[in-house]
């Protein structure tokens, strides 16, 4: 992996897809995205060499592994190699084949340093009392966080009311995954703003669409993430154009960040234009509160040393609040300081920077 890959332990918002999209290189995937919900172990066990390859490519903390079907489903998926099973498996019930699969699954979770263990509900798994009791026993006695080795995520069936599912998930100590773009007709995006969760696990399915998610729907998703900016969030796209959707979301976040910096810079320069020329520009980066990795890039500035005579020649003395500027041998400034008389009129004429 490249050296500039962000440490997953420092990531509050993870973005990725459900399985790697077709014709996408795995190394390229992890260079651009920070999460992958991987269903390779859902149908059956895979070779140790394949596990070692995933451990080499995927940084720790970037994978969410989907649990074996024998723990959650009665009907086997279509695959060449399946987990051993019998009539007792599935529906979050305890079974001998399920216990074997869970033990193998936990080993892989530990080996890959998975961020989440994901448990899918089978179709038509309704919110009956019997099913609630089964979930309670499964997550509290069988697939505990200690037994699994990672925080657990439960994907309820569409028959569940979202708030009912979240309440139960909170009681069981698991994350409840949901699609934030699925709402009842007439409901505003704000319907998801008071869910009472400690972390978000969003799965965007793009139901009914064949292309990328529309811009206005992506805006709803961004607003939801901004509302829950103080808690960790994982966003998984399972949409038909999921690779493009992840890139659109990343681009939108970067664009919003740039617009925010431009607004702050415009406001600051407007204030500088209204006050005395003695106002210092040396702490522009501090006033903008830029992240450390972006400092000195916004205006493409570079440190420059001027002699005292040079400072007078460039009329720089008036830009320092320090009374001792004429007594120092050198004055260290930013290169754009000597052009400030040009920057401010440019801002005034065009209205932008």
How would you describe this structure in keywords?
globular, eight-stranded parallel sheet, alpha/beta, 10 strands, 353 residues, TIM Barrel, disordered N terminus
Helical stretch tally: 13
CATH architecture of the largest domain: Alpha-Beta Barrel
Instruction: State the distance separating the first and last CA atoms.
Output: 37 Å
Rg, rounded, reads 27 Å
Main sheet: strands, sense, barrel = 8 strands, parallel
The percentage of residues in β strands lies in: 5-15%
How many beta strands in the DSSP annotation? 10
Shape: globular
Helix content: 25-40%
Give the count of structural domains.
Answer: 2
State the CATH topology of the largest domain.
Answer: TIM Barrel
* CATH homologous superfamily caption of the largest domain: Protein of unknown function UPF0759
Going by helix content, strand content and strand pairing, the class is alpha/beta
Mean pLDDT: 79
Strands in their spatial order, largest beta sheet: 6-5-4-3-2-1-8-7
What is the class of the largest domain in the CATH system? Alpha Beta
| Poorly predicted runs of 5 or more residues | 1-6, 276-283, 292-353
Description:
The protein has 353 residues and is an alpha/beta fold. It has two domains: 8-240, TIM Barrel (Alpha-Beta Barrel); 279-350, no CATH class. The chain is built from 13 helices and ten strands. Strand 1 (13-18), helix 1 and strand 2 form a beta-alpha-beta unit. The two termini are 37 Å apart. Mean pLDDT is 79; it is low at 1-6, 276-283 and 292-353.
């Amino acid at each position: 992996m490249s050296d500039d890959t962000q440490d997953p332990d420092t990531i509050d918002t993870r973005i990725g897809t459900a399985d790697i999209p077709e014709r996408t290189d795995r190394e390229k995937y992890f260079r651009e995205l920070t999460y992958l919900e991987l269903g390779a172990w859902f149908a059956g066990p895979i070779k140790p060499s394949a596990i070692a390859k995933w451990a080499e490519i995927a940084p720790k903390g970037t994978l969410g592994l989907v649990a074996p079907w024998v723990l959650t489903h009665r009907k086997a998926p279509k695959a060449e190699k399946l987990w051993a099973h019998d009539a007792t498996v599935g529906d979050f019930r305890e079974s001998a084949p399920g216990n074997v699969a869970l033990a193998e699954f936990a080993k892989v979770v530990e080996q890959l340093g998975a961020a989440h263990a994901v448990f899918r509900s089978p179709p038509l798994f309704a919110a009956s009392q019997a099913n609630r009791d089964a979930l309670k026993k499964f997550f509290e006695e069988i697939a505990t966080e200690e037994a699994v080795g990672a925080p657990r995520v439960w994907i309820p069936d569409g028959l569940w009311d979202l708030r009912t599912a979240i309440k139960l998930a909170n009681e069981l100590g698991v994350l409840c995954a949901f699609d934030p773009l699925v709402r009842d007709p007439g409901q505003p995006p704000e319907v998801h703003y008071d869910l009472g969760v400690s972390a978000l696990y969003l799965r965007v399915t793009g139901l009914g669409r064949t292309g990328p998610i529309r811009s206005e729907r992506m805006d709803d998703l961004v607003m939801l993430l901004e509302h829950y900016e103080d808690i960790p969030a994982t966003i998984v796209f399972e949409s038909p154009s999921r690779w493009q959707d992840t890139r659109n979301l990343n681009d939108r976040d970067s664009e919003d960040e740039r617009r925010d910096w431009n607004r702050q810079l415009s406001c600051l320069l407007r204030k500088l234009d209204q006050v005395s020329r003695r106002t210092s520009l040396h702490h522009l980066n501090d006033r903008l509160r830029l992240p450390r990795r972006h400092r000195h890039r916004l205006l493409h500035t570079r440190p420059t040393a001027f002699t005292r005579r040079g400072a007078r020649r460039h009329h720089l003395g008036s830009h320092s609040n320090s009374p001792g500027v004429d007594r120092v041998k050198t004055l260290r400034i930013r290169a754009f300081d000597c052009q400030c008389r040009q920057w401010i009129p440019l801002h005034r004429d065009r209205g932008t920077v």
